[in-house]
């Protein structure tokens, strides 16, 4: 997980900002899936 995303998530959890937590979770899953599909395409 990128460091900037980790910091944003920690801040959102600290503030109990559910909307921000949900948005960042969606960003993480999109990022992870995009990175996974790129690495599979190389093989």
Q: Would you give an account of this structure?
A:
The chain is mostly helical. 88% of the residues lie in helices and 0% in strands. The protein has two helices and no strands. It has helices spanning 3-15, 18-42. Helix 1 (3-15) packs antiparallel against helix 2. It is elongated and about 35 Å long. The two termini are 23 Å apart. The model has no long low-confidence stretch (mean pLDDT 87).
The proportion of strand residues reads under 5%
Q: What is the β-strand count?
A: 0
What average pLDDT do the residues reach? Answer: 87
Low confidence ranges = none
Q: How widely separated are the two ends?
A: 23 Å
Large-scale geometry: elongated
What Rg is obtained from the alpha carbons, in whole angstroms?
Answer: 13 Å
Specify the helix fraction band: over 70%
Largest sheet: none
Organism: Paenibacillus albidus
Protein name: Cortex morphogenetic protein CmpA
Topology:
Blueprint: H1 3-15, H2 18-42
Question: What does this entry show, briefly?
Answer:
With 43 residues, this protein is mainly α. It has helices spanning 3-15, 18-42.
Which key phrases capture this entry?
single chain; 43 residues; mainly alpha; elongated
